[in-house]
Structure formats: C-alpha cells, structure tokens
Amino acid sequence: MQNLDYIENEDLCASEAQDTVVDKPKSKVSLFAKARAGATAIEYALIASLIAVAIIGTLQTLGTDVSDTFQDVSDGITGAAAATP
C-alpha cells in the first residue's frame, strides 16, 4: 500500500515536471499583450515629441512678442531720455 502511494506520487511529480519543462504554445492574446508594451512605449514617445514641438512653437512665438515688447520699452526710454533737457 505504501509503495503504491509512492508510485502515484512519483507519477504526479513526473507529469507536473513535464508540464513545466515542455513549452506550451502561447496564445495570441498573451502574445498581443506582450507586443502591446512596445506599442505603448512608441505612443508615449510620439506624445512627448508632439508636446516638445508645441512648446518650441509657442516659445518661438512668445519670444518674438517679448522681444518686440522689450524693444518698445527701450525705444520709449531712449526717446524720453533724449527729450529731457
């Protein structure tokens, strides 16, 4: 009786070991989930690049406006200094 328990347990252990050793083909869902991680990284990179382009465009526009404002202030100070006797 004790020997049969040992043999049954040994068979179960062997079948469990065989299941872990043999590579089961992955399902399409698991492959898609793994491939999705790479796509997500690309999406984040695209979003970051679009944000960078928007920031650069905004700063160029604001930079020109700020430069014009400082030039107007400079001209006003120069004109006021020249008009003062």
Output the keywords.
single chain, 85 residues, mainly alpha, 2 helices, 89% helix, 0% strand, rod-shaped
Tertiary shape: rod-shaped
Strand content: under 5%
Mean pLDDT, as a whole number?
75
Q: How many DSSP helices?
A: 2
Order of H and E elements? HH
**What is the assembly state of the chains in this entry?**
single chain
Beta strand count: 0
Task: Please give a structural write-up.
This protein is 89% helix and 0% strand. It has 85 residues and is an all-alpha fold. The protein has a domain at 26-83. The chain is rod-shaped, with a radius of gyration of 36 Å. The mean pLDDT is 75.
Task: Show the helix and strand layout.
Layout: H1 2-21, H2 28-83
Task: Write a brief structural summary.
This protein is mainly α.
